[in-house]
Amino acid sequence: MAASSPVSLAIGLIAAAAVAFLPATTASAAPKPTESELRTQLKQLNSKVDKLIEKYNLKRVELAKAQEAAKAAKERLATAEQTLAATEQRVGEIARLRYQNGDPSVPSFMLPENGGSAAVLNQVTAEQQALVNGVAKARDDKKKAADEAVALANEIRGDAAEVDKQRDEAEDVIDDIKKKLEDLVPFGTGRKSNGSWAPELPSGADNITSRTRLMRAQVQKNFALPYAVGCFRAGSDGEHPLGRACDFMMSTGGSMPTAANNALGDRIADWAIKNKDKIGVKYVIWKQRINMGSGWRAMSNRGSVTENHFDHVHISMY
């Protein structure tokens, strides 16, 4: 069974933790829920998690729209300011011409040679009135754009704070779920008091040890595996013929995995290393590297995608 993603499990574990992990006295403490019970609770709460994620995403979309609106308002404000400046300059030019002539008539150089000044005067007067009206409109547009920009800036600050808060809450929940899921991983059999592991014989129809079987079950439970898992293999070197290793395929036919399956392989390898002391992992091989618990070390080129472990995660057990 493949587990839900860490984000989809987030709220579930918080709710479950509130019930299952609250401090209590020895006398009054309720029994800790089993893994099966806890996973059932998490599954039931997935819809609540989805709603939280949906709300978070909607708020992000609203924030992006508000930012675009603020940008448009800023552009309108700049245009209004330019229009206002140009209009005020033109009105000033006409007023200066009238003042220089000492009366409201049009300067002589603007008059036609064979006609009176009435027509031109009417034209200039109409233009002046239009410009005065334009100044008023430009000022109104400027004020409206400025008010919209201020309102949107305030809205953006509020939305940004809300988005940051929801993101922080989600990240905290995800961190908590990761820790709680680690607590759900059972201990492997045969661990001695000094931390070493007692040898185990393979058993069952699958010819693997109980520790290997536990490891395989935990990987299958916690990850949505895209392809088959191969464990026992006769006539080969290493841990496979001993029933102490499994290969988790990330592609088929010796081909390179997709980006998604490559990332999945990274997560499986990291999970195995993180839980090595709990379930008895000896080493992990993935992408021509080996990790025995003290970091990844490059391996020599064995000549193929499969031999170099680019298409599968190999986990060996004690």
Folded structure, characterized:
- It is a single chain.
- By secondary structure, the protein is of the alpha+beta class.
- The protein folds into two domains: 47-182, Helix Hairpins (Orthogonal Bundle), CATH 1.10.287; 210-317, no CATH class.
- 57% of the residues lie in helices and 8% in strands.
- It contains seven helices and six strands.
- The protein has a six-stranded antiparallel sheet with strand order 1-2-6-3-4-5.
- Strand 4 (289-291) and strand 5 form a beta hairpin.
- It starts with 5 loop residues before the first helix and ends with a strand.
- The model is unreliable at 1-27 (pLDDT under 50).
Summarize the structure.
The chain has 318 residues and is an alpha+beta fold. It contains 7 helices and 6 strands; from the N terminus they run αααααββααββββ. It is elongated, with a radius of gyration of 37 Å.
How do the helices and strands line up, and which of them pair or pack?
Blueprint (H helix, E strand, L loop, with lengths): L5 H15 L14 H10 L1 H56 L16 H67 L25 H13 L6 E2 L14 E5 L9 H16 L1 H4 L1 E5 L3 E3 L4 E3 L13 E6 L1
Antiparallel strand pairs: 1-2, 2-6, 3-4, 3-6, 4-5
Helix pairs in contact: 1-2, 1-3, 1-4, 3-4
